[in-house]
């Protein structure tokens, strides 16, 4: 399984950040599989953001739930995350992951997103 993130690189404050993960070698073969996103701000630890399960259920970080949206396009084997109303503190490396029963076994290499005017 390989995951590859793509993102805008630079986003202006108050805009919407959108990152996409392309999955190869993996698909929803069971409802226990999930696809998700983490981020790591500079000098800080990893922060879980959201999951979308193969069952269709979505889960969000309570701290960011009002600003997050995760979606999946099965025909292209991609899933995406949108974060609205970004601010400089949303600057981070964003990682896409595969999860099985809330354990994350495959990670993308990450994509840097900087929020700055």
Can you characterise this structure?
The chain has strands spanning 2-6, 10-11, 17-24, 33-40, 47-53, 58-60, 68-73, 78-83, 92-100, 103-107, 111-115. The protein is mostly beta strands and 117 residues long. The strands form two sheets. Strands 2, 4, 5, 6, 9, 10 and 11 form a seven-stranded mixed β-sheet that branches. The protein has a four-stranded antiparallel β-sheet with strand order 1-3-8-7, with no helix packed on it.
Biggest pleated-sheet summary = 7 strands, mixed
What is the mean pLDDT?
94
DSSP E strands, number: 11
Percent in helix: under 10%
Q: Over the alpha carbons, how many angstroms does the gyration radius reach? A: 13 Å
Number of helices: 0
How would you name the oligomeric state of the polypeptide chains in this document? single chain
Question: What is the molecular shape?
Answer: globular
Task: Give the N-to-C terminal Cα separation.
Answer: 36 Å
- Low-pLDDT segments, ≥5 res: none
Structural class determined from secondary elements: mainly beta
**What is the string of helix and strand elements?**
EEEEEEEEEEE
Strand content: over 45%
């Amino acid at each position: 399984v390989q995951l590859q993130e793509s993102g805008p690189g630079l986003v202006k404050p108050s805009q919407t950040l959108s990152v996409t993960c392309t999955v190869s070698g993996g698909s929803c073969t069971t409802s226990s599989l999930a696809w998700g996103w983490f981020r790591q701000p500079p000098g800080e630890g990893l922060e879980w953001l959201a999951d979308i399960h193969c069952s269709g259920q979505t889960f969000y970080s309570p701290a960011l739930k009002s600003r997050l949206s995760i979606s999946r396009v099965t025909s292209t084997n991609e899933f995406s995350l949108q974060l609205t109303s970004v601010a400089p503190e949303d600057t981070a490396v964003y990682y896409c992951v595969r999860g099985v029963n809330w354990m994350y076994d495959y990670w993308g290499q990450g994509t840097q997103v900087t929020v700055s005017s």
